[in-house]
Fold this sequence. Notes:
- Keywords: Flavoprotein, FMN, NAD, NADP, Oxidoreductase.
- InterPro entries: NAD(P)H_nitroreductase, Nitroreductase, Nitroreductase-like, YdjA-like.
- It is built from five helices and four strands, in the order ααβααβαββ.
- It has about 190 residues and is of the alpha+beta class.
- It has a domain at about 15-55 and about 95-170: NADH Oxidase (3-Layer(aba) Sandwich).
- It is globular, with a radius of gyration of 18 Å.
- The two termini are about 30 Å apart.
Amino acid sequence: MNDFQTIQHIMQHRRSIFPVSYTKKEITKDTLIQLLECANTAPTHKLTQPWRFVVFREEGLTRLANQLADLYKALTPAEQFLQKKYENTREKILQSGAVIAIVASYSGAVPQWEELAATACAVQNLWLAASAAGIGGYWSSPGAIKHVGDFLALAGNEECLGFFYMGYHDEPPRTGNRKPVTEKISWED
């Protein structure tokens, strides 16, 4: 398999894999650094490199689980509060090998949408690298992300865009369900 076929295969089989499917196998710090080095190669206008990552592992997962569950409880009107959702918020974090807070740091040097796009490219690189390493993941953006600034020690020009949940898994590879690309192309020859 050549490089193109390899990356094409990885892209076609990258799927959202949820914590219920994660095994207990540890994602080491070295592996996380290698994956985040892949994220760090994302394209960025004017080299602003707006992505920042806060990695939660081991006891950090417990702190994050408690924080997000407590935020859900505090922000949800009593008549809408669901104990099951509160518990699920904690459980999916605690089932993960790592959870990464995705942070965009706005430089002011380029439009904000470009910083968001660059950060999303970094997450896609992370996701593809994780998939190639047998690590599943998914990007979640719960409503509580608007309230985690102090917890994540975000600067005034930073914003949490969500959390990337990760874990080793045993799910078989599968391709995505997409409309044919020919329906999305117009040609100007």
